[in-house]
Fold each of these.
Amino acid sequence: MKREIIITSDGSTSIHLPEWEESYHSKHGAIQEAQHVFIKNGLSLCKGQSVSVLEIGFGTGLNAFITLLESHKNMVIIDYVGVEAYPISSEEVIQMNYPNQLNANEYYDFFSKMHQCSWEKCVTISEHFRLIKRKQKFQEIKDVNQFDIIYFDAFGYRVQPELWSVEIFTKMFQALKEGGILVTYACRGPIKNAMKEAGFRIEKLAGPPGKREMLRGWK
């Protein structure tokens, strides 16, 4: 499927799929969306000296990179698992401008290492951040009681409703530790119902720029 590099409203890059009219991030601001959904309303709630994160849709590495920056700022050890069935190319990686847009050019080598490191292996990206990239479909996830937080960043319900099913959210629920949370940019009726049926306690929260609401689920 054809992929195009675009600039979102906050100046940060994303990837657009013309065939689906779908992008990897919000056109209203990729970085703003990531910080609002996954950091402010997700990671910031995880207390302790170490946090385990599962990302559903590693994509451009934006969420992982922002989480790495948070790990250094807060001196927290983060073990991060990024699941991605269709990795982006090295040519696309070098066009992602996140270190510059986040005023974090001193961390550029870490961003590059995230994309260059081997799949299926635990790699120490920095003193505070360990990464495993898993090339697999979401339906293949079998983790149980492993994660403090899940970043659910799949393509939208409009184009891939099967990724927002009770089956998938049951896998997410099982993967979380007791008291763990799942955060996602989405907030549609069928998604809320699927999460509730899977066992989550649901909260509707104010969404990122350009979106009225988002969801957070608790185990």
Note: The longest helix spans residues 62-74.
Amino acid sequence: MSPSRFHLLLTSAGRPVQHGWWESEATARRKFSSWIGEYGNLPDARVTLTDEATGTLLTTWPDES
């Protein structure tokens, strides 16, 4: 496991495409927005941000509600 706390995961059509880990939540949230802009047009794209220290899913795109 990476020593960084905040984990971004990009999947397309249910398969992992890209991962990223950051120490700063603010940086991870900026990257989250950036990935949506860069990769949001992939088939069935999904981006999730998880706090690895607590196991909490912080946000996901597209929104599941």
Note: The CA atoms of residues 5 and 52 lie 5 Å apart.
